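<instruction>
Derive C-alpha cells from the sequence
<data>
Labelled lines for chain and fold
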Amino acid sequence: MQEFRTAVASPVGLHARPASLFSRSAKESGCTVRLAKVSDGQLSEFVDGASILRVMTLGVKCGDEIVVQVEGENEIQAAQTLRTLAESTDH
C-alpha cells in the first residue's frame, strides 16, 4: 500500500472539476483509493476516492491537507498521478 499526505493546491479545493479529475483517475487506476481530510491534526473518516460524491463530501478547500491511500497492482504510479492532481493549480 502506498500512502501520502499533501496539501491541495487547487483554488477551489476538491470541488467540482478537481474532484471529478481525482475520482476519475482513482477509478481508472484499477486500485483501491481511500481519501481523508486532515483537520486540526485529526483525520476524517476515509472515503472512496473513486466516488466524486464521497470526495466532495469531505469539503476539502485550497490549502487543506489530505491523506491518500492507494492499494493495487499499479499503486506506485497511481499514487504519483493522484499526488500530482492534488498538488496542481491548473483546475
In short: Strands lie at 2-7, 32-39, 42-43, 47-48, 65-71. The two ends are 27 Å apart (CA to CA).
